[in-house]
From TrEMBL:
GO terms for cellular component: plasma membrane. Pfam families: Bac_export_2. Residues 1-10 have a biased composition (Basic and acidic residues). The keyword Translocase does not apply. The lineage of its organism: Bacteria, Bacillati, Actinomycetota, Actinomycetes, Micromonosporales. This is Flagellar biosynthesis protein FlhB. GO terms for biological process: protein secretion. Keywords: Cell projection, Cilium, Flagellum, Membrane, Transmembrane, Transmembrane helix. PANTHER family: FLAGELLAR BIOSYNTHETIC PROTEIN FLHB. It comes from Actinoplanes lobatus. The chain crosses the membrane at residues 83-104, 143-166, 186-206. The keyword Membrane applies.
Amino acid sequence: MSGEKTEEPTAQKLKKAKQEGQIGRTQDLGAWAGMLAASIILPRTLAKAMEHAEELMAKVPETIADPDPAKALGILKEGLMGAAWTVLPLALTMMAVGIVAAGAQGGIRVATKLFKPKFNRLNPFTGIKRMVGPQGLWEGAKALIKTTVLGVVLYLTMKDIIPTLMTAGQLPLRSLIGVINDAAVQLIRAAAAVGLVMAAADYFVVRRRTRKQLKMSKEEVKQEHKNTEGDPLIKAQIRAKQHAMARNRQMADVPTADVVVVNPVHIAVALRYEPEKGAPRVVAKGQGPLAAKIRDLATENRIPMVQDVPLARALNKDCEIGQEIPAEFYGAVAKVLAFVMSLKARGAAAGFHRNPNPTPAAA
């Protein structure tokens, strides 16, 4: 069936889907990658936080001894600023990782069409279909696997730290914080590693589903090709008009020619020589009916026509309209022009003439 979507999406379809935000990507990849990056920076962040907290706590007795509201506000301001500067590298790292993860999954682009309201998004049947369809089953399975795996990771991490926490009263505060810090980092790294594996699987599933949604029918591919490349009938009409305009332009230049080299019947090439502009130029050329039209115009405008079969064929084959003749034709064309000048000197240039000295090398 022509309506069955069996064809892979074209480059144009993929580009349009990307502009509309229909890209196969998973949000989990950026989240878990950010968490893994955070676990690397977190120990230093906590260490700086502890140093800053100790500095502030050292100022508390002095403030209590001299309860000045201005000093208290200064300590509060210093604490807030210190906390912000301590957390800033962590926040920037997670943001950068999220951007890189999004870019790796298809680039970063603001899909403005997603902001336009679409009433089909409010259709409850569409939402129910997603919930009970393959997408809903995959989301449910993913949530179950995620919860189970994270529960196992949490258990394996906490079972080693619980005995230490039970004796927390016997440990100095810095040691206790160090133990908790190490356990938290270990937990985050283990969870992030497992999460990245699940995110990679989710990415391939989402990408495969999106690719399937973007598949096209044979008729859609044909229509897009027609829209992109243009209707063949219209293109043929445009080419015909362009050829007609080119013929009209060169026919208008025939009266300006100095000589028309003919075959004598099938080919005609009109040449104009202006010494100040360089070598002779081809102002018109053609075969069959077009050659007959050039000969008629030459007769009407008293342009000399010289029969030179090899030269006419070579000029028609190797020269373009409006361009100077190639260097290999200089000698042959010079002989034709010299012959025409001798005819003009005798007042007998108009009409048809046979070249008395055809040049075989010009063939």
